[in-house]
Write a structure and sequence with these properties.
heterodimer; A: about 750 residues; alpha/beta; Rossmann fold; FAD/NAD(P)-binding domain; five-stranded parallel sheet; about 30% helix; elongated; B: about 400 residues; 3 domains
Chain lengths: ~750, ~400
């Protein structure tokens, strides 16, 4: 939008005097608005009620398009104070002032100044914001499903059933994945008792008869470039290269078995009669289970083989207890033989308990907890010695076959995923990454790059989905399990976490929904989780770019590619609008329509800084919208109070705080800056993955700036806040105010 | 535009609703409580990250606030469902809140209300006034009156102080009819009634359930987050957790409730954090820490003050200054008698249908929803599961509901 096209702003300011806000000097508040902005603020004792809202609506109908509501928290009454085609800014006078401040003769003046500042800050922010225009391109609503096992097949069917087109790409010759190789599968629906023929074959037929699904077998992906809505996929089908465009991607490439060769101590590789659970499926398919030409009469199943073990896989593969029970049933029904199961815990969760019971009731299946001491061959039989059993004494059994319940590893594990997971010695890795991934040398990285790939995303940060632990893709797996660090790309099934086939099918439906949601949203220029529906995307004034690469490296979502010179190439539809790039840029060339360097620094400038003689400090608190700001509201809901010398500025993420805010604040005489954000580290809470982590890292640079200004580094502090920490916040804030008072006032005051 | 009905506004219902709405469909959430969030709002932390549920809930509420496609009905229950996939006629009863949308949550009414009631949010461990806000993060942020305790016309103290005409003591139940294409049943669960477990002394004040422990540990709980022995406020030196209390048991809930092992490990960390010297005894049958939760189990196990005993608890008895837990340690065959300050029964989850069956919905023998054309279940209404699994299957449920709307 050019300057001429910009719509003229007509400001309206509305102050609610309800909910104790009338404890402030409202007339004086109105006067401060009039003096500075030449606008008469209107007041109402119940602004969120019908009458109050009508006042605003009438003004909007008469041309007001920039509305500032000075009332309750922006987290409340969001739907009430929502006016079409208007910029709306909220000044939090309720939870932000009257409910969290002690108001008496001594504090009255400071509290009044706090209210005045908040109203001025909101007006200035509104004035410096513009209504965003969405980034609209012609996008595809087709979806690519990578992997043709039970998960991929189910995802493709669900996508088709919802009315969308799916491309199903499978590297093997046939669809079906692991499940097609099994003799029987676990029950796929309640009651979870009878094993059944693998459901995957029926589903393959459905896929082949579905005209909304295009199947590519013997196909690998050469590369994927572009962004959600416009992913350009190049595949190689048996030597022929084909290209197509999709809007979103579901990764369902499943798992690979843990290398049983590493389990020599359990006899694998040493004795022919020691096999894995996967090899057991192949044996069962032959009719009777035969080893060394002999029909097997007894089998020992060893659970947690190479799992729950720091020397192998530290995690649990979730399904092996169920799989072993299933295979014990094979032993009974095919050979009428005896099965021993030695476990650490029987993990048949939830309704699978019925399946466990059905095995317990079978006299031919013997189960006990126990640790396997040794396995060796003797007189043509395999001897298994088990200790710490439930029988109070060690057991020794002699069997014809030993089945090791080995675990699942994500197919992403071992691949070169993103640069930061394979940092070279020169890079400074992020804490939560370096804890999980030891630093690799450049040679190791090159070797890894040769190991093949799944997606081969042409993203500057790396070709695959970033992983969290053990090679499983990164996400807030409790609350928002499908959101990966790549917008528009969703993982499902065992590539994401070890799970049984029923769970895989459920997971496929979940990822399919997310993929459909993504194609619908990006078609409107909107981003997805967590700022779903936001059309405001960061714009880059590239003339002043110095190619420092901070934005391209720090973006948690890989939204920025780079040209040969290192200049960022934004892909707006990959962007989650966190503002981390904005916070990183030392040249300050990035901005949003509703969040810019100008709008933020103007808010800081709008704060009245009392002269030093008045001996009253001024402290800015940047509070992350997701956890810290709600926690501050909760302080107020509980009527707990804190210092009136602070000014809270909500930000979308601590990572979106640009160092210039702090430098500006300091040079204006602000005495201290407290940054409150989400926890970072391995069990991070930050909804943009590493915003608060980056803010913390950037503190180093900030301290340098402060040093040059001859300002104490202690004036800027960052703390991790959980949303339920509201009981601690008053003390944290007040303590910081005291610390600042001890340091003395900012020497720049009054300059 | 065809609408999707989501019955239940807990974490599964919220996920199904918001995911469907963000994909472009109109959704109505019917929630019987005065607030959304269901059971997770009562949890202090989630396993294994030990993070607060409110963090995720805040994001859910933010997404709902900015999405006009989601319509929320609280204090509401489904009375009947008729019709078939693509065309269901649903009758919804809205129970009176006695507080209308003018409520600004200013709290003046609570200051003057003369009556107290047991706080169901804290499982009766403390009281609220008859007019109350369920908890400070309640969404919608509106107060509510408990008609069983309110003195109504005899009192009217709240009416006299409310500046916003938000209180209406004459509010009547209302009925509304809606036509929807598909239904997601996400009615969740209630804690299994511990009073059925006679041998475990459930009526004793110091024998509490795992959900009550969550409230004790929470700042907005009855003790501001300090975990103390309920009978006398004593600080905790030892506590016993009894796993599978009423689950995996033919006489109670035959299935496994999926979360209690991890919930207990999590609660062990609550105790250990507050009391660095306290001892925690966990009596279990199997520790079900699947997948990546194994890490969490390994971490808690490393704490020497957490003792795991494989054995079913036979009985709990009172002692002069504590409780005695008797169990057979199946590993050693030795009967153990452990004296502790407090016992936490890891009671399971019973689907809400055990209390109220929604007419028009089919349930299996355990009380879980049997899906049919146009009606799908999510969360614990479907099967016992942890929060992560509930969110996963609720996302899938949203898709299934959308597929019906799109007529395929």
């Amino acid at each position: 939008m050019t300057e001429e096209e910009k719509v003229e702003k007509k400001l309206g300011v509305y102050i609610c005097t309800g909910c104790d806000i009338d404890l402030l000097d409202i007339e004086r508040l109105k006067k401060s608005v009039q003096d500075e902005f030449n606008v008469e603020a209107k007041t109402h004792p119940h602004l969120c009620g019908e009458e109050g809202v009508k006042i605003i609506k009438d003004d909007v109908a008469n041309g007001v398009n920039t509305v500032v509501v000075a009332a309750c928290s922006p987290r409340v009454n969001t739907d009430v104070f929502n006016f079409e085609n208007c910029i709306v800014e909220r000044a939090n006078l309720r939870e932000g002032v009257v409910w969290c401040q002690e108001i008496n003769d001594e504090t009255k003046e400071e509290v009044q100044l706090m209210a005045e500042d908040y109203v001025k800050m909101a007006i200035v922010k509104a004035q410096k914001s513009d209504l965003p225009e969405p980034y609209i391109e012609e996008t595809s609503k087709d979806i690519l499903v990578v992997g043709g096992g039970i998960t991929g097949i189910t995802a493709a069917l669900e996508i088709a059933k919802a009315g969308y087109n799916a491309y199903l790409v499978e590297k093997e010759e046939k669809l079906g994945g692991w499940m097609a190789k099994y003799y029987k599968s676990l029950p796929s629906k309640p009651p979870y008792i009878e094993i059944e023929d693998p459901i995957v074959f029926k589903k393959i037929e459905e896929v082949e008869n579905n005209d909304k699904i295009k199947v590519y077998t013997s196909t690998t992906i050469e590369e994927i470039s572009g962004q959600p809505g416009m992913f350009d996929v190049k595949v190689n089908r048996n030597g022929n290269v084909e290209e197509f465009r999709v809007g979103a991607i579901v990764v369902a490439t499943g798992w690979k078995p843990y290398e049983a060769e590493k389990l020599e101590e359990l006899g694998y590789g040493k004795y022919e009669g020691v096999i894995t659970n996967i090899e057991m499926e192949e044996l069962a398919k032959n009719g009777k289970i035969v080893v060394n030409g002999k029909e097997v009469k007894s089998v020992a199943f060893i659970q947690c083989a190479g799992q729950r073990d720091e020397n192998h896989l530290p995690y649990c593969s979730s399904v092996c207890c169920l799989v072993t029970l299933k295979q014990a049933k094979y032993v009974r029904m095919l050979n009428d033989a005896y099965a021993y199961i030695f476990y650490k815990d029987m993990r048949t969760l939830g309704l699978w308990e019925d399946f466990y019971k059905s095995a317990q009731e079978d006299e031919g299946i013997f189960l006990t907890k126990g640790d396997v001491k040794s396995i060796y061959e003797e007189d043509g039989k395999l001897v298994v010695e088990v200790e710490n059993t439930l029988l109070g004494e060690p057991i020794t059994v002699k069997v014809d076959l030993v089945v090791l319940a080995t675990g699942m590893v994500s197919t992403i594990k071992g691949l070169y995923t993103v640069k930061e997971e394979f940092p070279d010695e020169k890079a400074v890795p992020y804490k939560h990454i370096v804890d999980l991934h030891p630093i690799k040398s450049e040679e190791e990285v090159e070797e890894l790059a040769k190991k093949g790939h799944i997606l081969n995303l042409q993203y500057r940060q790396g070709p695959e989905l970033p992983t969290l632990r053990y090679g499983f893709p990164d996400s807030h797996y409790i609350c928002f399990p499908y959101e990966s660090r790549r917008l528009g790309i969703y993982a499902a099934g065992c590539v994401r976490a070890p799970m049984d086939a029923v769970a895989c099918m459920d997971d496929a439906a979940g990822a399919a929904l997310k993929a459909i949601q993504a194609v619908e949203l990006v078609a409107q220029g909107m981003t997805t989780f967590p700022r779903t529906g936001d059309i405001d995307y960061p714009q880059f004034f590239l003339q002043r770019c110095t190619q420092c690469k901070r934005c391209t490296e720090e973006c948690p979502f890989g939204a920025l590619d780079e040209d040969e010179k290192g200049t960022p190439m934004p892909n707006p539809l990959r962007c989650r609008r966190c503002g981390i790039c904005f916070g990183a840029c030392p040249e300050r060339i990035i901005s949003f329509k509703q969040y810019s360097i100008d709008s933020a620094t103007s808010m800081i400038k709008a704060i009245y800084v009392p002269p030093e003689e008045e001996e009253v400090p001024r402290i800015i608190i940047f509070a992350c919208e997701n956890d810290a700001y709600p926690a501050l509201d909760m302080v107020a809901m509980n009527r707990m109070t804190y210092s009136p010398h602070v000014r809270v500025i909500p930000v979308r993420c601590l990572g979106s705080v640009n160092a210039v805010f702090i430098a500006d604040a300091m040079s204006r005489g602000i005495d201290g800056v407290l940054m409150m954000g989400c926890k970072f580290g391995e069990d991070y809470q930050c909804h943009f993955i590493r915003g608060s982590e980056l803010a913390n890292r950037r503190m180093e640079n900030i301290k340098e700036t402060l040093d040059r200004l001859m300002i104490e580094a202690e004036r800027v502090k960052i703390i991790e806040v959980e949303i339920t920490d509201f009981d601690k916040l008053p003390k944290i804030i007040n303590d910081f105010v005291e610390e600042i008072k001890e340091l003395g006032f900012n020497p720049f005051k009054g300059f | 535009m065809s609408t999707i009905l989501v019955i239940g506004g807990g974490i599964a219902g919220l996920t199904a609703a918001i995911e469907a709405a963000e994909t472009g469909y109109d959704v109505i959430i019917v929630e019987k409580n005065p607030y959304l969030g269901g059971r997770v709002a009562q949890l202090r932390k989630y396993f294994p990250k030990l993070c607060p549920p409110y963090c995720g809930l805040e994001i859910f509420f933010k997404r709902i606030k900015s999405n006009p496609r989601v319509k929320i009905l609280t204090m509401a229950e489904v009375e009947s469902i008729e019709g078939s996939a693509g065309n269901f006629d649903v009758t919804i009863k809205i129970n009176p809140r006695y507080v209308n949308d003018n409520c600004t949550a200013c709290n003046e009414c609570v200051e003057v209300c003369p009556v107290e009631r047991p706080n169901d949010f804290n499982f009766g461990m403390d009281n609220t006034k008859a007019i109350y806000l369920p908890h400070e993060m309640a969404f919608p942020l509106k107060y509510v009156i408990d008609p069983e305790y309110c003195k109504k016309d005899e009192c009217k103290a709240c009416l006299s102080v409310c500046k916003y005409k938000a209180i209406d003591l004459n509010m009547e139940p209302q009925t509304m009819k809606v036509n929807v294409s598909s239904i997601v049943v996400a009615t969740g669960w209630k804690p299994y009634d511990a009073s059925n477990l006679d041998n475990l002394l459930p009526e004793h004040p110091d024998v509490i359930t795992n959900m009550m422990m969550e409230r004790l540990a929470a700042y907005n709980g009855p003790t501001k987050g300090k975990i103390v022995r309920p009978s006398d406020g004593k600080e905790i030196e030892s506590v016993a957790f009894v796993q599978c209390a009423g689950s995996r048991d033919e006489n109670h809930l035959p299935y496994c409730s999926a979360i209690c092992c991890l919930a207990t490990l999590k609660q062990a960390t609550y105790i250990r954090e507050q009391y660095p010297d306290a001892k925690v005894y966990i009596f279990y049958i199997d520790i079900r820490a699947l997948g990546r939760y194994e890490d969490f189990f390994a971490k808690v196990q490393k704490d020497e003050n957490v003792v795991l005993i494989k054995g079913k608890v036979a009985k709990i008895e009172e002692d002069e200054d504590g409780l005695i837990v008797t169990a057979e340690d199946t590993a050693t065959g030795v009967k153990t008698r452990q004296k502790v300050d407090m016992v936490v029964l890891a009671t399971g989850m019973q689907p809400s249908s055990s209390e109220y069956k929604v007419p028009g919905i089919e349930y299996d023998e355990y009380g879980f929803v049997v899906p049919k054309e146009g009606i799908v279940a999510a969360g614990v209404a479907r099967k016992p599961a942890d929060v992560a699994s509930c969110n996963e299957d609720a996302t899938g449920a949203a898709l299934k509901a959308i597929q019906v709307v799109r007529g395929r």
